[in-house]
Design brief:
The protein folds into three domains: 62 residues, Integrase, DNA-binding domain (Double Stranded RNA Binding Domain), CATH 3.30.160.390; 94 residues, DNA polymerase, domain 1 (Orthogonal Bundle), CATH 1.10.150.130; 177 residues, Intergrase catalytic core (hpI Integrase, Chain A, Orthogonal Bundle). The chain starts with a helix and ends with a helix. Helix content is 47%, strand content 12%. The longest helix is centred in the middle third of the chain and has 20 residues. The chain has a four-stranded antiparallel sheet. A three-stranded antiparallel sheet has the order 6-7-10. It has a two-stranded parallel sheet with strand order 5-11. The protein is an alpha+beta fold. α4 packs across α7.
Length: 380
């Protein structure tokens, strides 16, 4: 049905049609064309004079970007664009889709321009007592990223997330901190692996900072004993499917530390799968080991090693990666850029904030600083 049959032209006191103004159901409607598309928007004006002014203000706001042009894009549309705009593994994509379907189903079919800060606050408030802080933060990040993209695309003039009060934003509080081990404790844990295979796996995490998928995807051809290097080129999904590293920076060359070299050589002498294309940490039939078995092996190594870890800390495969970064930063005092390069991060600041935590207690830090200050003659 054409607009001339659904809307009547607004007319002035002399009965002449007013350009760009219409009347429908007793309300004024502005008509205008933007980028070749005809748009109509209902106005709040009560009189013709007010309608003229409101239409001019509307057009000025659209031209200056203060008012967003009407668009039918839904939250689902922008969520898909938000995923496509980032370099994500299939595992991360599936996890985000699961969170969308589980927690954001009420928004999926709605236009992003119709979602308000009140809607988002209500959704987050409903999750507060039912889900862990980690899940709440994960959902919040999806919301923030999707609406930020809608703002950049010009569909919104302001991100509704920005209108949330600080108390309405979820805060992640991990039940336990990530445990950070020193070099000696990493060696103790690795030697408690129970076999050369698990010792090599633990050493790859603690002395090279490899992610769990990178450990599973490492092949003997990636180890250069002459150059003392490890080439990280791929990762394995839980299904065993090979994929590229998490980011471009994830493809990297890592120095082969002596303790790790000894562990790999010892395992190669015992392993039946030592062809260049064979996975280093593999099963008897050369298949990659499962993540479940790796986690079980680490749990058993922790029991054998009897390491002293606080009840407030958790010691996992990812803890070993944190430990490696901490050793590079505190013991070797490597620059932040080198630290990021060796751990496979694009942002050096992120590496320092998240991974390079000093695991020493306060007394050790104080003693170290005072010793360095005395040696440098500072404050003497």
């Amino acid at each position: 049905m054409s607009k001339t049959r659904t809307h009547e032209r607004a007319r002035d006191s002399r009965g002449r049609p007013v350009p760009g103004l219409y009347v429908r159901d007793g309300r004024f409607v502005a008509g205008f064309s933007i980028e070749g598309r005809w748009n109509m928007r209902r106005l709040d004006a009560e009189t013709l004079t007010e309608a003229r002014r409101e239409r001019e203000s509307l057009l000025a706001g659209l031209r200056e970007g203060r008012i967003a042009q009407r668009d039918g894009a839904t939250f689902a549309d922008l969520f898909a664009q938000y995923q496509d705009a980032r370099q994500l593994s299939e595992r991360t994509r599936e996890h985000e889709r699961h969170l969308r379907d589980r927690h954001l189903s009420a928004l999926v079919g709605r236009r992003v321009q119709d979602v308000t800060a009140t809607d988002i606050a209500k959704l987050l408030r409903g999750m507060r007592d039912m889900y862990s802080p980690w899940t709440q933060v994960a959902v919040y990040r999806i919301l923030a990223g999707t609406f930020a993209l809608a703002t950049r695309r010009g569909l919104l003039t302001r991100n509704p997330i920005d209108r949330l009060a600080p108390s309405e934003r979820p805060k992640q509080r991990n039940a336990k901190r990530v445990a950070v081990l020193d070099a000696e404790s990493i060696g103790t844990l690795a030697h408690a692996g129970g076999s050369e295979r698990w010792t090599a796996a633990i050493a790859l995490a603690g002395y090279a900072g490899l992610r769990l998928g990178e450990i599973r995807g490492l092949r003997w051809q990636d180890i250069d004993l002459d150059a003392d290097t490890i080439s990280v080129r791929r990762s394995l999904l839980p299904s065993g499917e090979a994929k590229s590293t998490k980011t471009e920076a994830g493809e990297r060359i890592i120095p082969l530390l002596p303790a790790l070299r000894r562990a790999l050589v010892a395992w190669k002498l015992r392993s039946a799968c030592t062809d260049p294309e064979h996975y280093i940490v593999c099963t008897a039939d050369a298949a990659p080991v499962s993540e479940r078995n790796l986690r079980r092996a680490l749990d058993q190594a922790k029991e054998r090693a009897k390491l002293t870890v606080s009840d407030a800390e958790r010691l996992s495969w990812h803890s070993l990666r944190h430990s490696y970064a901490s050793i590079l930063a505190t013991d070797l005092e490597l620059p932040a850029t080198t630290l990021a390069r060796l751990t496979g991060h694009t942002d050096a600041g992120f590496t320092l904030r998240v991974y390079a935590r000093d695991g020493r207690d306060e007394a050790a830090v104080v003693e170290d600083v005072l010793s360095r200050a005395a040696g440098a003659g500072i404050g003497a």
